[in-house]
Amino acid sequence: MFGLNKTTPKFCDLKGKVAIITGAAKGMGKADSIKLANAGAKIVLADIDLAGCQSVAEEIKKNRGEAIVVKCDTSKKSDVDNVVAETLKKFGKIDILVNNAGIFPFEPFLQMPEANFEKVIDINLKGYFLMAQACAKEMAKQKYGSIVNISSIAMGQVGVGFAGLTHYCASKGGIVAMSEAMALELAPFNIRVNCIAPGAIDTPGASTVNMDPKQMEAMLAPIPMKRKGRSEEIANAVLFLASDESSYMTGSVMIVDGGWVAG
Asked: Is 0.85 topped by the overall pTM?
């Protein structure tokens, strides 16, 4: 499923590039890592789940790619700084960052403890800030870089809201606003910053394998394509934004949602 993609377009060649992917142990982060590795990038797999990252690294290496694993809680600056240090130690530079790590614990707004709200913001938003800032400092030295921040259609405004995910929606809307501001400041350093806003994606954290048919029908109702997306479909968008084929894009939000927002 996540093996070598022989149809990867040559124009998305990432040979010689170094990419850090957070939340790389499974789901979209895993798909992103393998997609970029198949395109030639050297991959740094960052996650709190070391075993999961090791499995992804082995798959990349079987396909003759290069990958290292670094344990990281993105909400901790010390962990983020260590990821950057290990990347520079092994590969000497950072060209691409895919900020993907995130959590989405459902919880009613009226019963949501402050600590739980803070945890989601710390991982989903502050973690993106810390990782992007640390990587951008290195990218600025070489006058080149691409930062891809994974937001969500749960971003407010042109997106949608989700009951039970106040903290998550706040973080994803914040990612878009932060990315736009980052894009303005980093453009003089030839660093591009873009967002991807996925809709309903079938990942291990949002699996529908055992979902009741009525629940499934209700979930798919607002999606014109009447299905959930696949992690690989998000990875295709990540590859485009990470590559020089998107060289005139910065501060943009790419919505990949089967038509949900359009409906």
From this structure: yes
